[in-house]
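User: I'm putting together a teaching handout on how multi-component assemblies are represented. Below are the sequence lines for each component of a complex, exactly as they appear in our records. Could you produce the 3D structure of the whole assembly as structure tokens, so the students can see both representations side by side? Please keep the chain order the same as the input.
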Amino acid sequence: MATTTKMTLAKALNAGLRRAMEDDPKVLLMGEDIGRLGGVFRITDGLQKDFGEDRVIDTPLAESGILGTAVGLALAGYRPVVEIQFDGFVYPAYDQIVSQVAKMHYRSGGRAAMPVVVRIPFGGGIGAVEHHSESPEAQFAHTPGLKVVACSNPVDAYWMIQQAIASPDPVIFLEPKRLYHSAKADIDPEATPPPLWSSQVVRRGSDLTLLCYGPMVSTCLRAAEAAAGEGRSIEVVDLRTLSPLDLGPVTDSVRRTGRAVVAHEAHVNLGMGAEVAARITQECFYSLEAPVLRVGGFDTPYPPARMEEHFLPDLDRVLEAVDRVMEY
Amino acid sequence: MSQHLETGPETLGGDPTDYVQLLTPEGVRVEHPDYSLDPSPELLRCFYRDMTLTRRIDVEATALQRHGELGIWAQLLGQEAAQIGAARALAPQDFVFPTYREHGVAWVRGVDPLKLLGLFRGSDQGSWDPAEHNFGLYTIVIGAQTLHATGYAMGMQRDGVVGTGDPQRDTAVVAHFGDGASSQGDVNEAFVFAASYQAPVVFFCQNNQWAISEPIERQSRIPLYHRAEGFGFPGVRVDGNDVLATYAVMKQALQRAREGGGPTLIEAYTYRMGAHTTTDDPTRYRLDDDVQRWKLKDPIARVEVLLRRNGYADDEFFARVQQEADGLGAHLREGCRALPDPSPLAGFDRVYAEQTEELAAQRDEYAGYLASFEGAN
Ligand SMILES: Cc1ncc(C[n+]2csc(CCOP(=O)(O)OP(=O)(O)O)c2C)c(N)n1
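Assistant: Of course. Below is the structure of the complete assembly, with chains in the same order as your input.
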């Protein structure tokens, strides 16, 4: 009998990967340092020992090579799950992802599926040097042929990674690296998870809808808690899937609250918030009491670590946007 | 089934002694037919001092990271000879493109090591002026700088400062990179471009046997320097723990580049004695035996033996270097803690050479936001 276990987000991903590998012998893991070391974040800890070097593959140091060979492995019937060591190092693979992974199904007239998962630890807040704290989700969500999801907690991490691996389409799987080792949650392997392509209301409220994903979900939940102390009732929606968007729960919510704020760490300009705000405006125009505001990183490169607390939207910046929307 | 790596480093890399060596680990001078060197006592003392001070920078920075003053530090322990030999061979006009670990090269190029700490502390992303030191910014994206070096070398060709015969003018460019980086497309493309244009660039690979947890065999089944031949330029392997040999080999390669002879690949065969960075735990993937074996090949100890045995340096010299290292340590400890935090608003003004109205407005908005807190206090 499987039992409920308490796990961090990192452990939950590890358990999810393990289960996906047990369920399907075609699932392979590829990446730099994922074997004996277990990855720099230890997400693949112990998997090479248990599944062998043919299924947990330490690759040469070349991201374009990793993604390019993943395409070939997928064409040969495998399901490669690639680990990119840090967000800022996905760009050498960008060409393979955008021109090959994303377009193969289309180009082949639907004959060639690309069940490739690209796991990317993303976002900042860990005091890292440059290229280690970026949020590239919009660049992938903008690419037809790719699906993009972001998990925000251990339970979702456990299920979403398995669902992404089972998907016949390529999935960019974003992991909030600063939450890897924070609060544990109970994981019940017998539970029935919500569908991968669904957003979820994670806190009920009636005055305003706060939309977020990945590392910003915990920030937004804290902001909602703080706002409650001031008599404001904020509904928080974890978008989870960024492409395709699941706007049902979002528009339901905004039709009730009449107000919305979107928050992410990525640059505001042409970020996910722009798409979400446009879609809300289109779908809920007559319900809106105020423009949809976006809170995010500045339109500058990710700054040196000693400035990141300014760059990253925190509770105060989220609440300031909430105030502006409420007072509109 | 794939071919697995059942062997440790060195077994597949060819005969590791198949390299240029001029000073043995025991401190004995040996001759090499292609690389003769008759270093003055002064040069030998200079090597010793550079390596000792560089090691001190490394030790202090590691300690500062442990004390929470740096976010991370990339240690160079064990690679002092490779870096000092390579850097002392430079002419003033030569230009260097480093990775993130070239602290010894930075030292020789006159970059205040405090400025290296700024990057690892998170105060900035490199605060030295590359043009002032002919030493580029650290590059963290693996391999990218090898193309930059090649392009810079192409610029030198167009400037007419290659092959003029004037030793004050002729310029070479150095691309530093690691064994892991040799797998990147960028590095291989740099080889192609450099060969195609006979660009005056020296590719200096510190093969420290490891790319984080991955041994060199994961990147190459042949000695790395053999790769050069396939690209159409010479490759040479040098004992990277031997500062004399590294210096001699680098001198020759730089000279060839300056004369218009084209690129060279140098593989400095060395060992990363420390962790990959201060966040790494090498006990998870390598045996201490290897580390112990390499300890016997320490790059500094052998120069000390040579200096003492020949009477090129006395106790007073060693005491003086020690004192200087202590002073450097104090400079780094005090200076690091005093490094100013970056201004939250200055970042907005650095994004473009010509500021945009949009971004200036974003800065002003944020300035107003910050001011609103000051009012509240
Ligand atoms: C494009 C890219 N991918 C991954 C990384 C993460 N990373 C940093 S250092 C490193 C290993 C580099 O090994 P090597 O080139 O041998 O140099 P060394 O660190 O040993 O000096 C890796 C994988 C990176 N910085 N850039």
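A couple of points students might notice: Chain A touches chain B through 39 residues (CB under 8 Å). Chain A has a mean pLDDT of 97.
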